[in-house]
UniProtKB/TrEMBL annotation:
Catalytic reaction equation(s): Hydrolysis of terminal non-reducing beta-D-galactose residues in beta-D-galactosides
Pfam families linked: Bgal_small_N, Glyco_hydro_2_C, Glyco_hydro_2_N, LacZ_4
Domain Beta galactosidase small chain/: 692-951
InterPro entries linked to this entry: B-gal_small/dom_5, Bact_Beta-galactosidase, Beta-gal/glucu_dom_sf, Gal_mutarotase_sf_dom, Galactose-bd-like_sf, GH, GH-type_carb-bd, Glyco_hydro_2
Name recorded for this polypeptide: Beta-galactosidase
Region forming the signal peptide: none
Sequence similarity: Belongs to the glycosyl hydrolase 2 family.
Keyword list, A-Z: Glycosidase, Hydrolase
First-level EC class: hydrolase
Alphabetized GO MF terms: hydrolase activity
Organism: Streptomyces broussonetiae
Length: 954
């Protein structure tokens, strides 16, 4: 055994001693032994701190620590094994390929195992040792014999070990280095998490067992027939009982089938039987083609309603168990998502089985990103350096060979943000030659030289529309290709805004075949003091903060408002109409399925209360088809505010959601809301305490409201500030769209209120003020006009901007505080938060929530929780009616405290509840990475007038 031979760590070749890649399958009748579980771990700070004597049988590891495999050692041992590091694109080590730092955390892993009693005799066939994922470089020994080493963290690697096995006391030793030449190819925007993080399995390989096999299962939509052929390294037979297929490997059978699509994921169970093994197959017949400039499956174009999915678990990092993977798939299906890009590496192979089973289109992406080279204008980029090409081809082959038998995989992606170069071309050529049945994607190939789809990330709406109309130019080849947005809608913090506007474009222009929101889940790490940790919370010297929390799910997989918005925007049924004349138009927006899986209901709601319900008979429309239907006569007399709510529900239980799960809905207003009228009937009176007007008292000098019907009220007064969202703060590469810094520079977070006049008159009280930031000439002339009918109090706020306002306002409204409030009832949009460009899922009705429930727990605290279109709200004994409807927010801390907090645990309730009643809110946009809010969602400083009627109850 050699001493201190860690030179392989900087070797640009992919590894040594590893078997060629082959198809992955979960189980067959051949024996296998999971080596997951508790392993011994010795962590060292450098790659060569110890010689390799530990790999020898009999080496005493009793005083070593223990670690769970699959797992990342930095997420175990309460910090004793080092910490995670988060960077977006910067390499956390000097860029000097292929060298890595001397400080190279290294985990020596040892696992001793016996073969199970029923394990075949060692002379019967061979055995393989399979690693499904190790970050970033592993060297492996079995019973003291070195098997080899490998890189390619999220790819499988197998070794032949048959002749080395013993019945008992086998010693498997794995030395894992955090950094290797391979790290240069794995610069994805995520935590750096070393370890054996996917399964380790020993597979018996009987004589004549399956080596590699390729299931070709196509579908001809003209004949309704599927054609099956299975190529196999070892000859055998294929049987598919449900289809009466019994053919030899290499032979072809063509039979009538139900095709596989993400909407109708029909799988046929089959078996590949060779002399030594029976491998179960789940066969989905489908044909992917680029035709007429469109991606078509089974002859029909499809629209991706996708998400980018990193593997993430808040405690286990990228070591996901099957139930977590299933939860992801179920959550996607329940939120109308039909596609996943496996950003930015092949996922655990079992995830793709779930995609086959439940139905999701998959863009399977190779484990390749070299983004950090952008810092040096891509000089020395490994993907344009022939020395690295074998490693790139190895990665492409390991992905394609592993995943080629999944019907869900329709597109191969070469990787992400790796610049351009010969290595990428070589990968694309290899993939095209190996698998002509799928398309090739790579966003960095702007000319589409090597790819079959034009792909962009974060283009503004206007540009997407230009591409939709084919006005974008580009190479001849590109002009003939469809566009997909491999990333859009950056779901960092509050947002993303503008999804509905993108969806309208996707639906309008054939060339636009949809996109994938960035990204599925926040990568927050559960932390004893901070709730969820993000970049910098582990003392990293280089990090990108909470840019790692940009998902549609919170780290614990609770759906965020962004996911609820997305679900609404991508509903597979469109329901439109005129509530007044009772007509409704239903359109099937699926690509493949008819509407026979759905039932439709209506309800007639008066002032947010359901007055009557019924069912609506909708024909089983084919994709793209519409039907005009008539709603029944309004069941109730016209109320003050009436509307129809139409819902499309699952007619039966499905594998992914129960019967009655709501797939789509719409509201059709019938009669508008009538805000309460208030006729002023009392005049203000001076008292010893100030000014009395109806139920209220005011400070005579400042005109400030002091009490209202016995309630102590702070404010209301004009407020324009919100705790900037991640999108307000903007990405460093969007300097003109970084509203947060621009707003602070202008001073909108520290407005001064100057009282110019307090004027009681015969019918009320007028308070004239000017609200403006120190150091600037802009201001808002603000007049508060108070009147009362003796019982209730009405405030009308008039705002006239002064000076040259070039920036939009964060919000415009009033802020007040009440001493206490717990339950909130309101009539307006809900149940969740909404902002001007994120309000599709906000449904007007009567809602109840506690103040705490109104908060959206963004990992980094920021503006959140506004309810849209609120006509009235009740809390803490106060009722507020708005004219017009307003944005309602209530929280137990101030905006300033919210803004100062870095984690949710920084927020502690004070003794008051702070309420914002807003006439306007600035849109949210997506500029934490992409474009800002569209102009129609900007809150411009313009003359405005809005009013509220306050009354007290109880
Ligand atoms: C993209 C990148 C993703 C992620 C995203 C921002 O450029 O492909 O990995 O970094 O930006 O969150």
């Amino acid at each position: 055994m050699s001493l201190r031979t860690t030179a392989y760590v900087t070797d640009v070749t992919p590894g040594a001693g590893v078997l060629p890649p082959r198809a992955w399958y979960p189980a067959s009748d051949a024996k296998s032994l999971s080596l997951n579980g508790t392993w011994r771990l010795r962590r060292s700070a450098t790659a060569d701190a110890h010689d390799d004597a530990f790999a020898a049988p009999g080496h005493d590891t009793r005083d070593w620590a223990e670690v769970t495999v699959p797992g990342h050692w930095v997420l175990q041992g309460d910090g004793a094994f080092g910490s995670p590091i988060y960077t977006n694109h910067l390499y956390p080590f000097p860029v000097d390929p292929p060298h890595v730092p001397t400080e190279n955390p290294t985990g020596d892993h040892v696992r001793v195992f016996d073969l199970p009693k029923d394990w075949p005799r060692l002379s019967e066939g061979g055995a393989l040792l399979r690693f499904d994922g190790v970050e970033s470089c592993a060297r492996v020994w079995l019973n003291g014999t070195e098997l080899g080493w490998f890189t390619g963290s999220r790819l499988p690697h197998e070794f032949a070990v048959g002749e080395l096995l013993r019945p008992t006391g086998n010693v498997l030793a794995v030395r894992v280095h955090q950094w290797s030449a391979g790290s240069y190819l794995e610069d994805q925007d995520q935590w750096w998490l070393p370890g054996i993080f996917r399964d380790v399995t020993l597979l018996h390989r009987p004589e004549g067992s399956v080596t590699d096999f390729f299931v070709h299962a196509s579908y001809d939509h003209r004949t309704g027939e599927g054609t099956l052929r299975v190529d196999s390294g070892v000859a055998g037979r294929i049987t598919v009982p449900a289809l009466d297929i019994d053919i030899a490997t290499g032979e072809t059978a063509t039979v009538p089938v139900d095709p596989w699509t993400a909407e109708t994921p029909t799988l046929y169970d089959g078996v590949l039987a060779t002399p030594g093994e029976r491998v179960p197959l789940r066969i989905g017949f489908r044909t992917v083609a680029l035709e007429d400039g469109l991606i078509k499956v089974n002859g029909r174009p499809l629209l991706f309603k996708g998400v980018n999915r990193h593997e993430w678990h808040p405690e286990h990092g990228r070591a996901l168990d099957l139930e977590t993977m299933r939860q992801d798939v179920l959550l996607m299906k329940r939120h109308n998502i039909n596609a996943v890009r496996t950003s930015h590496y092949p996922p655990h192979p079992a995830f793709l089985d779930l995609c086959d089973e439940y139905g999701l289109w998959v863009i399977d992406e190779c484990d390749l990103e070299t983004h950090g080279f952008t810092e040096q204008s891509w000089r020395d980029n490994p993907v344009d350096d022939d020395r690295w090409t074998p490693a790139l081809l190895d990665r492409a082959a390991r992905m394609v060979e592993r995943d080629k038998n999944h019907p869900s995989v329709v597109v191969w992606s070469l990787g992400n943000e790796a610049g351009t170069g010969r290595g990428l071309t070589a990968m694309a050529e290899w993939i095209h030659a190996r698998d002509a049945s799928r398309l090739v994607h790579y966003e960095g190939d702007v000319d589409c030289r090597d790819t079959d789809v034009y792909s962009r990330m974060y283009p503004p709406h206007a540009e997407v529309e230009r591409i939709g109309r084919s006005l974008d130019g580009g190479t001849r080849k590109r002009r003939r290709l469809p566009l997909i947005l491999c990333e859009y809608g950056h779901a960092m913090g509050n947002g993303p805004g503008g999804l509905a506007d993108y969806q309208r474009l996707f639906e309008r222009y054939d060339r636009l075949q949809g996109g994938f929101v960035w990204e599925w889940i926040d990568h927050g790490i559960r932390h004893p003091e901070l709730g969820f940790a993000y970049g910098g919370d582990f003392g990293e010297e280089l990090h990108d903060g909470n840019f790692v929390c940009d998902g549609l799910l919170f780290p614990d997989r609770t759906p965020s408002p962004g996911l609820l918005e997305y679900r609404k925007v991508i509903e597979p049924v469109r329901i439109e109409g005129q509530g007044r004349d009772g007509s409704v138009r239903i359109t099937n927006a699926h690509d493949f399925a008819d509407l026979s899986a759905l039932t439709f209901t209506w309800s007639y709601d008066v002032e947010g209360e359901t007055a009557a319900t019924g069912t609506l008979s909708v024909p089983a429309l084919t994709p793209g088809e519409s039907a005009e239907l008539k709603l029944p006569e309004p069941p109730a007399a016209e109320g003050p505010e009436a509307r129809w709510t139409i819902r499309a529900l699952l007619a039966r239980d499905t594998p992914w959601a129960p019967r009655d799960h709501v797939v789509a809905w719409a509201q059709l207003p019938v009669t508008p809301h009538r805000p309460p009228a208030l006729t002023p009937s009392t005049a203000p009176a001076s008292t010893a305490d100030g000014i009395r007007l109806g139920p209220a008292t005011f400070d005579a000098r400042t005109g400030t409201l002091l009490t209202l019907g016995g309630l102590e009220v702070t404010g209301p007064r004009l407020d324009v500030w919100r705790a900037p969202t991640d999108n307000d703060e903007g990405a460093p590469w969007q300097p003109d769209a970084r509203l947060g810094p621009l707003w602070r520079k202008l001073g909108l977070h520290r407005m001064r209120h100057r009282v110019d006049a307090v004027e009681p008159d015969g019918t009320g009280l007028t308070v004239r003020t000017r609200v403006a930031p120190a150091g600037a000439e802009v201001g808002l002339a603000t007049t508060y006009r108070w009147v009362s009918d003796g019982e209730r109090l009405k405030l009308t706020v008039s705002v006239v901007p002064e000076g040259d306002w070039t920036l939009p306002l964060p919000r415009l409204g009033v802020r007040l505080a009440l001493p206490r409030a717990d339950r909130v009832r309101w009539f307006g949009g809900g149940p969740g938060e909404a902002y001007p460009d994120t309000r599709s899922a906000s449904r007007p009705a009567r809602w109840t929530a506690s103040v705490d429930d109104l908060q959206t727990p963004y990992v980094r605290p920021q503006e959140n929780g506004a309810r849209a279109d609120v006509h009235w709200a009740e809390l803490g004994g106060l009722r507020i009616d708005g004219d017009p409807a307003f944005w309602f927010t209530a929280r137990r801390w101030t905006t300033e405290q919210l803004e100062a907090a870095a984690h949710l645990t920084d927020l502690t309730p004070g003794d008051r509840v702070w309420i914002n009643l807003d006439h306007g809110q600035m849109g949210i946009g997506s500029q934490s990475c992409g474009p800002g809010a569209l102009p129609q969602y900007h809150l411009h400083a313009r003359p405005a007038e809005f009013s509220f009627v306050f009354s007290t109850r109880g």
